[in-house]
Structure formats: C-alpha cells, structure tokens
C-alpha cells in the first residue's frame, strides 16, 4: 500500500515540481523541510494542509488520500475495484482522535488517517459542507443504544451552538472529548445527558446557562454508523 507521503512525492514529481516549488505553490515560505517531512511520513499533514496540497498538485482530497496506487490497481484489479468519483463523492477525513461515550477521552493531538466517502448529493440534502466535516470513532457505552462502542460518527464543526435534544462532541475544560446529548432544562440551564438508561452509571450532568458557554462544542453529530 502506498503511504500518504509517497503519494505526495509521486504527484509532485508528476508535475515536475521540486519540494521547494511545491512549498511555494502552497504559499509556505521556507516550506521545503515541511514538504520533506510529509513525503517521508515523519509528520501527518493537517486537514487544512491536505486541502492546500491537493489544490497545488491539481488533484482532489479524495485522490490524495486514496491509498491504492496506480501500479497496485493495475496488478490487482480484482482487489482494489472501483474508486468513487470525486465529482460524486466527498471524502471526509477520519481523525485518530476518539470521542468517548463514557468517562471522557483525552486527545493530546489529532492525526488524519484516510476517511469515509459520502455522496455529495446526500451532503447537499443535509445542508452539510464538506470543509466543515470529519469523522471519529466512539469509545464507551454511555450513549447506547443511539451510538454504540466502536461506531463512527460524522461531525459538523460549523454547528457549535447548543440546541435542545441534539448530540454533540464536547471538549471539556480539562481536555476530555465526550459525545453527549444536550437537553435544555425546564427549570433553567442545561443537562449533559447520556442516552443509556442506567443513570446510576451515567447520570445527567447539570450545567447552568453561564457554564454552557464554557464548554467547547467541537461539532454536532449528524450521522453515525456501526456494526449490527
């Protein structure tokens, strides 16, 4: 399988660009070392860097992250099969960070590892914009049966305003990333709620109107998928 770094190097050479020239096309001053680190897989590009690289290399994000090289596809046509068209599908990056449906998950850093493809027509019907989306995996059981341990969720990072009854990825002040439902209390304030009915293990967490502003809402969960 071709690594992301090798793929960047192959696409750069195909355009006849040096590392310095590619860095300049990306608008990165003195960025030759940055390109070198990416090509040698010493650093993982951020999603914003991946989008810039894709544009500079005259390719798409879905093609840049596709780990099936042309040589491999030719040698193993029955293995790699059909690659979704970038015109019809959007590749949403998958982050190595986990959202905890339990006691919380600390994420010191986030790396991009491939992604999932979604039909652009579906994204349009859902009023979702590709640049605002990413997917993460869930750990824990507090949101069952809605979201289960090992499920993947699609986050819309543009939706950070709390709305009653919606499910969000929330980064707490201590750095914990949790997947919870926000409920507006009839008596004022909010509840951070787990869908699991075992409230002794997963009790509601009351939050005042003023404290809700201290929560860092990463995005709203707009889709989830997992094993049956």
Describe this entry's structure for a reader.
- With 228 residues, this protein is of the alpha+beta class.
- It has 2 domains: 4-80, Orthogonal Bundle (434 Repressor (Amino-terminal Domain)); 89-225, Ribbon (Umud Fragment, subunit A).
- The protein contains 9 helices and 10 strands.
- Strands 1, 2, 3, 4, 5, 6, 7, 8, 9 and 10 form a 10-stranded mixed β-sheet that branches.
- The longest helix has 11 residues, at 4-14.
- It starts with a helix and ends with a strand.
Give a nutshell description of this structure.
This protein is α+β, with helices and mostly antiparallel strands.
Give the integer mean of the pLDDT values: 80
Q: How large is the radius of gyration?
A: 20 Å
Shape: elongated
Biggest sheet statistics: 10 strands, mixed
The structure class reads alpha+beta
Distance between the termini: 29 Å
Count of the separate structural domains: 2
Q: How many beta-strand elements? A: 10
> Helices and strands, in N-to-C order?
HHHHHHHEEEHEEEEEEHE
The share of residues in helices is 25-40%
CATH hierarchy, class of the largest domain: Mainly Beta
The CATH superfamily of the largest domain turns out to be Umud Fragment, subunit A
- Going by CATH, the architecture of the largest domain would be Ribbon
Helix tally equals 9
CATH topology of the largest domain: Umud Fragment, subunit A
Outline the low-pLDDT stretches. 69-82, 103-110
Strand residue content = 25-35%
Keywords, separated by commas or semicolons:
elongated; 228 residues; 10-stranded mixed beta sheet; 10 strands; 434 Repressor (Amino-terminal Domain); alpha+beta; Umud Fragment, subunit A; 9 helices; 27% helix
